[in-house]
Amino acid sequence: MKKLFFSFFALISLPFIVSAQTNVICTNSNAEKVMLGQYNPSAYFASTILNRPDTIFKGIDARVSPDSLESYIFTLASFYNRNTASDTISSTQGIGAARRWIYSKFQQFSNASQNRLLTAYLQFDTTTCSVRQHRNVLAVLPGMDTTDKSIIIIEGHFDSRCANVCDTTSKAEGVEDNGSGAALVMELARVMSKYSYNNTIVFMATTGEEQGLFGGQAFVNYAKQKGITIKAVLNNDVIGGIICGYTSSAPSCPGYGDLDSTHVRLFSYGSFNAPCKGLSRFIKLEYQENLLPSVTVPMGINIMSPEDRTGRGGDHIPFREGGYAAMRFTAENEDGDADVTNPAYKDRQHTSGDSLGAFKNGTSRLDSFFVNFPYLARNAVINGNAAGMLAIGPKQPNFSLTAVGYNNLRIQITNQPQYHQYRIGVRTTTNDWDSVYTMTGTLVDTIKGLTSQVYDVSVMSDDTNGIESLPSTEYSITLTGIDGIQGNPEGIELLQNKPNPFDFATYIGVKVDKPVNYQNAYISVRDEKGQEVKRLPIKLNKGTNEVLFEHGYTARGVYTYTLIIDGKPIDSKNMIFAN
Asked: Does the pLDDT value for residue 517 go beyond 80?
């Protein structure tokens, strides 16, 4: 994945950042029509329609194969160097050979699934490492219902790099970064094309990620230009390794040699009322309710506070910047922070060492692999389950939230048609829902017996198949523990940080009830000795305003943060570092 530590002066001299994108086209007109919702769904119906939720998620769990993933990664590594600007002519090496092979595999999967996958390139022009034209690879699985024309994207970049970002000749197998993500996308195209969904699903292998997220940005530009509606984007980047390196980009693993094959990190933008974070919560809920009760190896899903690791980025970011719900799957452990300019750097990421594995006693025989294929398969299943449920689930609801008495919340659904039931997600101090309540057969319900604090509440529609929609708009409300709801008399409330306790990063929020006349506002963070460690400028717009405080893993104890407006302290709260 892309490293984002660029100074301005370094940035203007980089050879790969030269021109804007132009001439973004899809090479398959039928695939484009499907993504636009301009097609006859019956033309792509399977002879036997398999679209029940349990059939889909159980089938994905049973059919995703570690062996298939291993075979894809071995082939991707065989292209030696998949730099975005590498050879496009050779049939055995370079980015051209790699993308043609991915395209051929997508076509092979289509042939095995009644030709229901439409393969295409998304071609675009932008000068990257002196090369002008580039191509993402797409497999488009048409949905059965064009009433909702929005698509779901499962993506992972297939380009690789070594220490020099424009080196097109040195070994750059890019196994973890990001052969693992590209292989996951391919395997889900194979497996998920056996089933039928209401929404269209696009499986996309992107290029140009290492030089500037260009492949992801190209699809965003294309969608905006054509009017394609995107429901959700699941990005997979560095998703198959289980070994912690000497370094890793925070928030990450505890230390060299640590192994973790039972957890995965979900990175997404924002905290309060953030569609991307809501998507992450949806993914975790669907895994917990559909798969966790029956899987052989349970997975822990960690919803991270930041959009990505410190100083890092991925192809989900252009989608979020384009206004779409997008998130990133990344392995719990990773080998390196990609700081190849550091003479002491000895990890694999962004070097020629990002290869298949270690060789036995100096021989040419692999002794161990750097990607754990069963772990990668489990992450593929989590992706597939979430995408499948998104593609058959109901529409998001609208609702109103009011206080009843001093410790009850009243939820009223305000849109029609009425669904079988609704799921109400309630959170307080973490990125996760504390509880998910169910209201059945009604449009109005009350959650009773809550304590005095701030609650963030969102609602999901739940259809007769028991599948949730994406979470709605999230609303915040304060219960004071006394009869009635009382706001801050000044109309400004400093909120408790979330998550709290926290280990690496946390959001600090300020709730503003009415317009504020001010010149300057910031959050002052002080350590246990009273020394200021950070000033975080914050806007005071009406509603909830948040800033992300990233400290790292070294801090311990209780810190204090204070809202300062035009030099005047307004309120202070404590936050706790997890041990």
From this structure: yes
Binning pLDDT at 50, 70 and 90, where does residue 11 land? very low
What's the DSSP call for residue 42?
Answer: G
Alpha-carbon distance 540 to 522, whole Å? 10
State the pLDDT at residue 429. 87
- In sequence order, which residues have a C-beta less than 8 Å from that of residue 516 and are 6 or more positions away? 491, 492, 540, 565
What does the alpha-carbon distance between residue 323 and residue 275 come to, in Å, rounded to a whole number? 9
CA distance 26 to 23: 10
Q: Encoding tokens for residue 568? A: 């005047």
Residue 386 Cα distances to 53, 228, 468, angstroms: 11, 21, 10
CA Rg value for the chain: 24
The CA-based diameter of the chain, rounded to the nearest angstrom, is 76
pLDDT in tens, 44-99: 999 999 999 999 999 999 999 999 999 999 999 999 999 999 999 999 999 999 99
Query: How far out from the chain centre does Cα 537 lie?
Result: 26
Specify which residues 330 forms β-bridges with: 265
Give the number of other Cβ atoms within 10 Å of residue 198's Cβ. 18
Going from the C-alpha of 59 to that of each of 62, 379, 388, the distances in angstroms are 5, 15, 11
| Cβ within 8 Å of residue 15, ≥6 positions away | 129, 130, 166
pLDDT in tens, 420-440: 899 999 999 899 999 999 999
Which letter does DSSP use for residue 418 in this model? P
Retrieve residue 237's tokens.
Answer: 């980047």
Q: Are 266 and 304 in contact, with CB atoms under 8 Å apart? A: yes
Write out pLDDT tens, residues 219-276. 999 999 999 999 999 999 999 999 999 999 988 798 999 999 999 999 999 999 999 9
Closest by Cα among 180, 178, 187 to 83: 178
How many Cα atoms within 13 Å fall on the side-chain side of residue 436?
Answer: 18
Note the residue count of the chain.
Answer: 579
Report whether 199 contacts 148 (CB < 8 A).
Answer: yes
Alpha-carbon dihedral 373, 374, 375, 379, rounded to 10 degrees? 100
Query: For the chain, what is the mean pLDDT?
Result: 92
How do residues 165-199 score in pLDDT, each as one tens digit?
999 999 999 999 999 999 999 999 999 999 999 99
With b meaning 16 or more CB within 10 Å and e meaning fewer, what string describes 171-196?
Answer: bbbbbbbbbbbbbbbbbbbbbbbbbb
Contact 467, 542 (CB under 8 A): no
